[in-house]
Amino acid sequence: MERESKLMTTGKSIILRLEIHTDQVKFSDIVTAIVELGGDLVAIDVIQTKHDSTTRDLTVTVTDSAHINSIVDRIKLIRGVKLVNISDRTFLMHLGGKIETKLKVPIQNRDDLSRVYTPDVARVCLAIHEEQRKAFTLTIKRNTVAVVSDGSAVLGLGNIGPYAAMPVMEGKAMLFKQMADVDAFPICLDTQDTEEIIRTIKMIAPAFGGINLEDISSPRCFEIEERLKAELDIPVFHDDQHGTAVVLYAGLISALKVVGKSIREAKVVVCGIGAAGIACSKILLAAGVKELIGVDRQGALVAGQAYENPMWTWYAEHTNPNRVSGSLYEVLAGADVFIGLSAGGLLKREHVASMAAQPVVFAMANPTPEISPEEIEDIVGVVATGRSDYPNQINNVLCFPGMFRGALDCRATIINEEMKLAAAEAIASVITDDERNKLYIIPSVFNDKVSKLIRDHVVEAAIRTGVARRIPREYR
Asked: Which of 172, 229, 261, 438 is catalytic?
């Protein structure tokens, strides 16, 4: 619930809890105000009644967020009415949180109690003490991932802190369980100090089989991930970077097949060289892209130039082999692929028209793409976005459940580039040659084949590259 504030929602109805002073206002005046603004009052529930006031829940059907705000603003102007709170289906779904702990075995008597706790549990503790790797078989470690954030870069909301980040991390934990039967727990840290974050994650690592870093701002996220990968013996995966990269590459595999182009011969321009942009570029380089040009606020990144961001320096040294300079629009001319991870409305139709024939445009800025698909659908080979209301959504939900399922099942020590490439190829393989077209290059997040295919490909890649500590039975 949200007190005395304007509500952003994707629902079609809201519940307004109003405290109405009956000696100052008639209930019919409130109804009239709502109806005049186009609200449809569908239910009235009396919560409490006193001699001079009444508290009621009004369920109102609305069209969008702006409609909600106009109704709320009007009600606040009515003398004798106090808006206690506003809720909708989304807020109600979050009451008390969205996940819980459940027992795998019941405790029904003293014998059960002695086995799961004291005194018999001591035998299990000693077994792990003598051979630490048994923690994987005798505790929740084998199937549990920590979803860790500091709240510094949450969705498109920015630095909203650890408390406000919790609903997102809970949602992530739900997706882990629903899509890959991985037990995940949200951990939001009340610090944005790089060293404190690294130290804290290392201290809690014994309980987990993997670490999913989430919504940590750039450039700190790079150091945090690299340090943890080097200092822990369990997989560490910054999903904002690598989940996006895996799904993007999966989509690009299909898109290039649609337009009949080779990834090794394609000229690719990446706009927005932040965490996701760098990760996407790394996987494309690993996949064989030869001409990759990164563009940010200062234009094309070119080796030899001085950049304050050390990652931009690294990027310039590993991309743009022809040392092309200039603005986004200048380097985009003749390009086969545009990948946008920047800002909405940045691209114009004439810029896309300057690209090579049958261009592939991935406009993934959220919530507003770099260019609307409607503006260019007649001049592109394929267009994709990060939005669910357009075809070809590039959504990292496709990646991380199956990625960790595979890493946990083979007890991988790390998630390496080969495992990411394998995951992308698994996602792309879901779509057959007969199904693939310009409006269908990436499977739905609800396609139940995806997580299992990713898991299998990731396990195979981990075994092949020597980072698997356990060989699942089907591979022996």
From this structure: 172
As a whole number of angstroms, the distance between CA 394 and CA 384 comes to: 7
Per-residue pLDDT tens digits for 58-113? 999 998 888 999 999 999 999 999 999 888 778 888 989 999 999 999 999 999 99
Q: Which pair of tokens denotes residue 382?
A: 């394929």
Closest by CA position to 301, among listed 279, 339, 331? 331
Tell me the C-alpha distance between 8 and 298, whole Å.
34
214 Cβ contact list (under 8 Å, min separation 6): 147, 148, 149, 168, 169, 172, 238, 239, 240
pLDDT score for 5: 34
| DSSP, res 336 | S
Which DSSP symbol is given to 141?
A: G
What is the number of other CB atoms lying within 10 angstroms of the CB of residue 446? 9
Question: Smallest Cα–Cα separation from 149: which of 183, 96, 197?
Answer: 197
Q: What is the pLDDT of residues 21-58, one digit of tens each?
A: 999 999 999 999 999 999 999 889 889 888 888 999 99
Cα–Cα distance for residue pair 277/270, rounded to 1 Å: 7
The secondary element (H helix, E strand) that includes residue 213 is strand 210-213
Residue 416 CB coordination number (10 Å): 18
Task: Let me know if 117 is a catalytic residue.
Answer: yes
C-beta of residue 376 within 8 angstroms of C-beta of residue 349: yes
432 CB neighbour count, 10 Å cutoff = 7
Q: CA-to-CA distance for 256 and 438, rounded, in angstroms? A: 10
Catalytic residue among 12, 76, 117, 177: 117
Residue 370, φ and ψ in degrees, nearest 5: -60, -30
Q: Which residues contact 343 (CB under 8 A, 6 or more apart)?
A: 272, 365, 370
DSSP 2: B
Place of tokens 């954030």: 149
pLDDT tens for 298-321 read 899 999 998 988 889 999 999 999
- The amino acid that residue 361 corresponds to is V
